[in-house]
Specification:
The protein has helices spanning about 5-20, 20-30, 35-45, 65-90, 110-120, 135-140, 175-180, 225-235, 280-295, 305-315; strands at about 50-55, 60, 95-100, 125-130, 145-150, 155-165, 165-170, 190-195, 200-205, 210-215, 215-220, 240-245, 255-260, 270-275, 320. The chain is α+β, with helices and mostly antiparallel strands. Strand 3, helix 5 and strand 4 (about 125-130) form a beta-alpha-beta unit. The chain is elongated, with a radius of gyration of 24 Å. The two termini are about 45 Å apart. The relative contact order is 0.14.
Length: about 325
C-alpha cells in the first residue's frame, strides 16, 4: 500500500479498537476482514512496532498501541474538524450520510422524503438502515437516528422532536367481514392476533386508564418486523399493533383498517437523534432541516389541536440531554 493510505489505515485502526473486532471495523468501512487486517499491518510496518495483541478470542492494545491510539484519535478528530470547517465555508453538503430508522419507517413516505432531499443536495449519498434497536451512533458510525419512544431519549444525545407517532390495532377488511369488528377492548380476547416477541396481552389506554386484555395469539414474530406484521394482517390472519403512519403507505392503504381508535395502544413521539459536536456537518444539518419540514405536513388522522401541538414542539430549541449520573 502507498503512503497515501496511511490516514485511512489510522481510521481503520481506531475502528478496530473501538468496536473490539476486525469484523466490526470491516462492516463500518465496507471492507473484507482480510483488507482490514492489511490496513493494520500497514500501520505496524510503517511504525516498526506491533499495535495489537491478537488471539482467536480477543484483541488488546500493546503499550505502543495505547500511545498511538490516543494520538491517532486526536489527529483524526482534527482532520474531521478541518473537513467540517471547509465544508461550512463552501456551503455545499456532500459525502455519505448514515441514517438509522425503525423497520416500520420503511415506507413510500420515507423514500419520497429522501428523494426530495437528494434533489436539493445531489452530492450527498444517503445510507439508510432500518433496524428495531437503539444503535450506538458513535460506535457504529451513524450520523443520525430516527426513533420513536414514549420514554426519554438516550442520554448524551441531541433529540429533536418530530411528531407524535401513535400505535393502533390494525385489521384487514377481509378479517373484519369474517370475524366482526371489535366494539370494546374486552372483545379482543375473542379475536386472533399477531404479536411480536413474547407478548401475551393487549395493553390499551382509554378514558378510564390503562386496560390489559389477554391475547389469542395465532402468529408470532421473533423480532419487531413491522412490514412483515402488516403483510400478515393484510392476509387476514388476525389483528396486530402497527404504527398509524403505515395505514397511509400505498402498499397497505387499501387493505388496513384501524380498530378501537379511541383506545390507542401507546403514543410515543418520533425524534431525530444525533451526537452533539462543535461543528454540525452540513449534510446532517440540511437533512435534519428537511426532515423537520417534512414532518410538519399534517397526516390524515391528525386533528387541528394535534397539529398545532406538534408545530409548537418542533419550534422549541434543541435540548442537550445530559448523561445519566
Amino acid at each position: 500500500m502507498s503512503a497515501m493510505d496511511t490516514l485511512f489505515s489510522m481510521k481503520v485502526f481506531r475502528q478496530i479498537v473501538e468496536s473490539g473486532s476486525f469484523v466490526g471495523a470491516a462492516d463500518r468501512f465496507s471492507l473484507s476482514t482480510a483488507m482490514t487486517s492489511k490496513h493494520l499491518m500497514h500501520l505496524e510496518k510503517h511504525l516498526g512496532t506491533r499495535l495489537l495483541n491478537r488471539s482467536s478470542r480477543s484483541l488488546s492494545l500493546t503499550e505502543s498501541g495505547k500511545l498511538f491510539f490516543e494520538r491517532c484519535k486526536g489527529i483524526l478528530e482534527e482532520v474531521e474538524e478541518a473537513e467540517l470547517a471547509v465544508g461550512s465555508v463552501s456551503g455545499v453538503p456532500r459525502g455519505t450520510l448514515r441514517v438509522t430508522a425503525p423497520s416500520w419507517a420503511a415506507t413510500r413516505g420515507m423514500v419520497d422524503m429522501v428523494v426530495a432531499y437528494r434533489q436539493l443536495y445531489p452530492e450527498v449519498v444517503v445510507d439508510l438502515s432500518f433496524e428495531d434497536r437503539f444503535v450506538d451512533l458513535i460506535e457504529e458510525g451513524y450520523d443520525l437516528a430516527i426513533r420513536a419512544t414514549a420514554d426519554q431519549p438516550p442520554a448524551g444525545l441531541i433529540a429533536r422532536p418530530l411528531r407524535a407517532m401513535p400505535f393502533v390495532i390494525a385489521a384487514s377488511k377481509d378479517y373484519l367481514q369474517r370475524c366482526g369488528v371489535p366494539q370494546a377492548p374486552e372483545d379482543l380476547a375473542q379475536h386472533d392476533c399477531i404479536m411480536v416477541g413474547n407478548r401475551q396481552s393487549w395493553h390499551l389506554t382509554g378514558p378510564n386508564g390503562n386496560i390489559e386484555i389477554p391475547a389469542r395469539v395465532v402468529l408470532r414474530f421473533g423480532t419487531s418486523m413491522s412490514v412483515a406484521v402488516a403483510h400478515a394482517v393484510c392476509a387476514g390472519i388476525g389483528l396486530a399493533p402497527l404504527p398509524r403512519m403505515m395505514f397511509e403507505d400505498p402498499m397497505f392503504k387499501d387493505a388496513l383498517r384501524p380498530v378501537l381508535v379511541k383506545h390507542p395502544l401507546r403514543h410515543p413521539h418520533l425524534y431525530a437523534l444525533y451526537v452533539s459536536r462543535k461543528h454540525l456537518p452540513l449534510k446532517i444539518r440540511t437533512f435534519l432541516d428537511h426532515l423537520i419540514e417534512t414532518t410538519r405536513i399534517p397526516l390524515p388522522w391528525e386533528d387541528p389541536v394535534t397539529i398545532e401541538q406538534k408545530r409548537s414542539i418542533n419550534a422549541t430549541p434543541v435540548v442537550r440531554l445530559a448523561p445519566n449520573k
